[in-house]
Each structure stands twice: as structure tokens, then as C-alpha cells.
Amino acid sequence: MPVAGELVTGLKCRLCGKLYPKEALNFCTDDFGPLEVAYDYEAVGRTFTRESIASRPKNMWRYHELLPIDGEPTVGKHVGCTPLIRADRLAKALGVAELYIKNDAVNHPSLSFKDRVVAVALSKAVELGFQTVGCASTGNLAGSVAANAAAAGLDAYVLIPDGLEQGKILGATIYGAKVIAIEGNYDHVNRLCSQIAFRYGWGFVNVNLRPFYAEGSKTMGFEIAEDLGWRAPEHVVAPMAGGSLIGKLHKAFHELDRLGLMNGPVRTKMFGAQAAGCNPISNTVKTGANKVKPVRNPDTIAKSLAIGDPADGFFASKLIRDTGGWSEDVDDEAIVEAMQLLAETEGVWAETAGGVTVAVARKLIEQGKIDRDGSTVLCITGNGLKTQEALADRLARPVVIKPTMEAFDALVESYGAFAEVGAIAAGA
Amino acid sequence: MPVAGELVTGLKCRLCGKLYPKEALNFCTDDFGPLEVAYDYEAVGRTFTRESIASRPKNMWRYHELLPIDGEPTVGKHVGCTPLIRADRLAKALGVAELYIKNDAVNHPSLSFKDRVVAVALSKAVELGFQTVGCASTGNLAGSVAANAAAAGLDAYVLIPDGLEQGKILGATIYGAKVIAIEGNYDHVNRLCSQIAFRYGWGFVNVNLRPFYAEGSKTMGFEIAEDLGWRAPEHVVAPMAGGSLIGKLHKAFHELDRLGLMNGPVRTKMFGAQAAGCNPISNTVKTGANKVKPVRNPDTIAKSLAIGDPADGFFASKLIRDTGGWSEDVDDEAIVEAMQLLAETEGVWAETAGGVTVAVARKLIEQGKIDRDGSTVLCITGNGLKTQEALADRLARPVVIKPTMEAFDALVESYGAFAEVGAIAAGA
């Protein structure tokens, strides 16, 4: 595919607009505003057409003109193009007409949407000459950096808060990454990683490579639009941790619109989902505050969303208000019930963050914030196998019987037993 | 897509060739031989071309003319088209020139190749009017039947041997399936399911729906050939439980050849991988026996392969010998080491069965049974998140430090600590 190098004009401060070269920088030296990748959209438009995209392999790189690497991708070549599921059974349960699940629970290699951002960040890291990369992670990013770095032959340092789920810890150590748990929460980990990236000159995907990294999330939006026939949905519900994803989904729809690829106008309302135990952004939206008040001690089973001081919290809350969307948060009980509802209606086993998204969507529908007649896309960002702890105590063990028809017949006859099995499955 | 109904002529006994109608039957009433789907290849050839296939969505149904359902698929519409990874780092470690990983660890929805067979079996179950479906499973099939039945609104009964991994049990109960553990091993479960299917008239995917079910595995072979540029590899290494997959991979290459879609001849040697703790098929191959001697008490961490009396064991061992391939088995230690090698070189975290495949491939390469210069495809069939128990004790916990640069610097300086972290990751 054509080299996209000349399509990226540089990095631009989101506050003052000052331009910087496309290097490992993440904030403006004048006002400390975050930097964002700037593109030459006129040049992009020359090759970025529906026809050219349709002719490319089914992975996230089919949108390469709007991804900030200069040459061919060298990391994460197979990432993306996950299923957009028409979710009629869940739609019926939630009482809406047109519902879709964007299922990044099966994104590969590491089963979360983080493979999208890591594919871009590590491909860029290779271009910039980094041999050692790292990240501050609440779990999914740890596995994605570890897996993709291993495949690329890069050394990976993964820093996580102490006490993450076993699946997420094993899911990083198995790849040979140096996994270091920090006594404290994600914000402690993140601050330390900023110092490490500066001191050691390593490429931290969500620190000094963050502007490039964050652009990878746009591919989730590009895929949603392409799979909907180059249309944007009326509502998108996305989970919020650092608050970056929801903004990039919105940016994706508007970039496609700007380039003339969309059928009809883009009027998508953005809805943000958080856990009640860590709701700095939803709290900002609901109170109408002008700045995000950090949550000092996050406490939720949705550990992948447990970021008390979200880097993009301000921009996310502003975007949600500007688009006419809203934000809500839900407790652990509602999270688990929603995980089960999603699994039982659509056969999708999401991690706790997916339960947050579905539970918040249900709440927003009941509040009338999400129009029951409009089209809605729920973004599922991680896999349920990674957060088994949240269910292990709530789903009872299976009934155990002897290997005989008598035993099975007795089980079938005992409606009580069935009610129980059914109830277990239904989470009662 | 065109209805494929008239392309299936019926079911044919693999022993005597007697023809049966395409109904829920699985064995010949004359000699109890297994039944296999028969196609009208001339009719298939009219629409099954490289061009027509290339124009279809990227999922297993792009090969629908060679899948035994009469109408449109109603279950598992997004299944398949998993990555075929050029595995140069693993190739270097194993000392071969051209190596590929067919990564069904990320097949969806349930993260194993079983979604392929279940998509066909349940789409057929819907056509035949079954509302209640079931399976006998060693784990992956349980999750796939539960997930796909949930999405289709079917009632699912999943029978498993007692003592499976938590990830596989939760991975079935979460979808609302009725999960029943049987005191005994898989062979006890399988015998009971045969009685249940007969007594209750339910659609058991790997019992009375088995002929349709088994055909789904061919799509793994179709995808390998298409991704290799319509070529068959010189060697394929596949894990063996019941022994069906290896035969269907071979059948897929030869069906494509028969229809004139392949570049060059199909001379693929088939290699079967088993665990030393349950090796009925590899033992048959290695001893040259004429019949498969069942393993009474399987004992291996590769629980998904722990079938002591494999339904297709005879056909698998004959195929392996006829193609000039071979079979081996490996112990638990080798399985875990191979899981780590695959993860550290290619960023693929496979379940224990994947460790069996990689460890057996290494053994066969060292034995000279697999030619170091030929092209080899390793079939990875399930995800590592499902068998965490096999690693939990072997991968030590991450190093825990305070959130300070002093603590991090000390860790970096202490090569001992690093050697330890490295050693942990390297499985030493």
C-alpha cells in the first residue's frame, strides 16, 4: 500500500494549536496541552476512497491514510475488523429498535480494543528506533503491549497497579514482558511511567507515544461506519477510563464525513459509561462542572476503567455535552447483571467494562436520554475470560451427576433442579 | 448468497458407502460406520470459484457451497477467517524455513476452532427444527455451543467431565446454558449424550448432528489454502482429540484441488499431535497397529485433548500414514514450555492444546519427520485464557515495587531482579 508518511503534517496542541514535529512528544511546552496528530486531508482524500478501502485486506490498516505511521505497519498487521453484530435479542430486552454490538472482545491478538492503539504505537516506535517499549496499564494494555512487542521482537516493560485480575497478569507475563506491579492505583503507575519514559528514553505507548497511540482507536469508528454502509449511528455508548476512546470514535465519523465518504450527515450523540466506583468523567457531565474532579481511591470490579484522574477527562466530558449525549455510572451488581444479559442474549462474553457499557446503556434508555427509535452502537472493548473473578462467586458450579440415564432423567424431571440451573444461568 | 441445498446429495457411510438422507443420523445401520456428507461437486463447481469466493464477506461462510446447510446460515454468521500468521521468529527457534500459525485461538465468538463446527451444526439444527441442542465436551465445545445457542435463542444442554478448567466452565454457564458435569471422563460423557439424544430427540452437535458438524472444520483448511495463495502447505500439524479435525483439513485441500482452485498439486503430509497422558491415536501411528487401543484414564493438562476413545481415531491414524506424515505425543512440561515459546516468539497465547501442537512440531522437526525446508502450518485451536491453571503456578507473580523512581532504578540496576523477571518469562 502507498506510504502514508507525507500525510501526517505533525503534532498539534489541542489547547493553543501550536505545531510540533511528528516525534515522541505528548504535550505542548507552552501550555502543557496534549498533542494530537495533524493530517493533510487534501492529500489523504486522493487515495482514501470507499473503493480503495474495499479493495484492501480486512484489518485496521485498510484505513492507513488516517493512521500516523510513515511506512508499512510492522506491528499488529492482523489487528481489527472485528464483528459489528446486529443485536436484536438484546435490543428487545432493552426496548430499542436498532442495536449493534461492536465486538472488540474478540479483537486479536490480545482480545481487547487496545490492540488497535498498540499496533499504531509500536509500529511508530519501530519507525522512531525504539528497542524498548512500555506502558502504564489497568490490564488490557499490558497484554496488548506484551503480545505485540513479543511478536515484533521488542523488549517490553509493563507497569500495572498491584491487585489486577490473574488473567490480565498472566496475559502479560506469558509473552515474556517484564511485568512490574506498583503499590498504588493507576494514577501512581501513570506518574511513574512518565518519569521512566523521560529518564530512560524508552517508548511508552501511552506516555511519549500517546499522540500516535490514541489515533489507533479511530479504526473502531471507521469499521462501525463502513459496516453500517458508510453511515454514523445516532447513538454510541463507549466505556471511559482515560477518556480517549470516545473522542476518537467521534473524530473517526467526522473525518470520514469531511472526506466525503459518508451517506448522510453525522449527528452522532456520544454517551460515556463509567463505574460508580470510579466516575470522574460521568460525574463531571452530570454536575455540569468545568473541570474533572479526580477520584482518589477507585473501587470497582471494572478494574480496566479504574482511572481516577483521566488524561482526556476534560475533552471527553465536553464532547459528550457538545454532541447532546450524556454519561452515567453503575454499581458492581448492575455490571455483573449486564454481563450476563449480554452473554445470554447475544452470545458475547465481555469483561466487566462491557457490563458497564451495557448497564449504562440500559440506564440511559430508561432515562430517555437514548432515543428508543434511533440506531445505537454499544462498544465492547475486552473479553470476559480476563475478568473471571467478577463472576466466579456469582455463577454457581454446574450440577454434578453420575454417568447414567437414571441420573439424567431425575435431573430433567426435577424442575427444581432445572429452575436452579436456569436460575444460576440467569444470575438469580 | 445462493442456496446450497441441492449441492448436498445426502449422507454416506465411510465404511460401506451406503447412502442416507441428509437428516440427524450419524451411523450406518448396516455396519455402524460413521456417516459423512456427500456433495454434488459438479454443481458446486458452477459457483465455487476463486473470484466468487474473493467477492464474499471474510468469514467461514464464503465457502458455503461445501458446507452442508440448505439455506442461509442462521447461527455463527461472523465465524472464521482467523489470521494465518507468518511465524518467522518461531521458525528460527524451531529451525525451519517457512512456518505459519493458523490462529483459531482468536476465532469468535468463543475463542476456539469449535465455533466453526458449531456454526454449521446449529444452523443445521435450526433447519431441522430442533429447539433444544446439546453437546458432549472437553471444554471448548461447551463454550461454543453455549454462546452460539444463546445468540440464536436455542436451549442448550452442555455435558462435560467433572474437573474442567474454571474458564471453560464459566465460559459456558455465563451464556445461560444448562451445564451438567458428569462423574467420569469424556468417554462416559459421550456415551451418556448418545443415549440422551436418542431418548429426548434433541440435537446434539457431536452426536446425531455429527456429520454436519464435522464439515465445519474444513473451513480452517479452506482459509489456510486461500491465504497461501491457493496452495496447500507441505506439512500440517494438528492437535487430535476425537481425531476429526486432521481429516477435515486434508479433505479441504483435496476438495479445492478437485474443483480446480489450487495452484500446484496437493501433497500435504498430515501430522497429528497428542499429549503423552492421552495418546491413543499417536500410539496407533507409532506402533503401526491396525486398530486404536483406547486410553482408559487420560491424565494430561491438555484437557481439551483428553479423549481416550477417539471417534475418528482409526481414520486419523490411517490418514497420517497414507499421507507420509507421523504422530507424536509430549508431556506436560513440554506443553507448558511450548506455550511460552509460542507466546514469546509470536505473541500468540494458546491453550494447552496449542502447546501440544508446538511441542510435537518441535519433536517431529528434530526427528527429521518434518522437512526443515518445506512449508509448515501449525493449527492453534484454542485460547490460553481458558487454561490459566496450567500456568498459574509456573509463571511467578510480577515484582512489586513502590511508586518511586528510586524503587524502579533499583530494580533496573539489580540484574538479579531482572534475570529473575526474565527467567520467569522464559519459564526457567
UniProtKB/TrEMBL annotation, chains A, B:
GO terms for molecular function: L-serine ammonia-lyase activity; threonine deaminase activity; threonine synthase activity. Its cofactor is pyridoxal 5'-phosphate. PANTHER family: L-THREONINE DEHYDRATASE CATABOLIC TDCB, THREONINE DEHYDRATASE, MITOCHONDRIAL-RELATED. It comes from the Bacteria. It is an enzyme of class 4 (lyase). Gene3D superfamilies: 3.40.50.1100. InterPro entries: Ser/Thr_Dehydratase, Thr_synthase-like, TrpB-like_PALP, TrpB-like_PALP_sf. Residues 77-382 form the Tryptophan synthase beta chain-like PALP domain. Its EC number is 4.2.3.1. The keyword Oxidoreductase does not apply. The modification N6-(pyridoxal phosphate)lysine is found at residue 114. GO terms for biological process: isoleucine biosynthetic process; L-serine catabolic process; L-threonine catabolic process; threonine biosynthetic process. Keywords: Lyase, Pyridoxal phosphate. This is Threonine synthase. Belongs to the threonine synthase family. The lineage of its organism: Bacteria, Pseudomonadati, Planctomycetota, Planctomycetia, Isosphaerales.
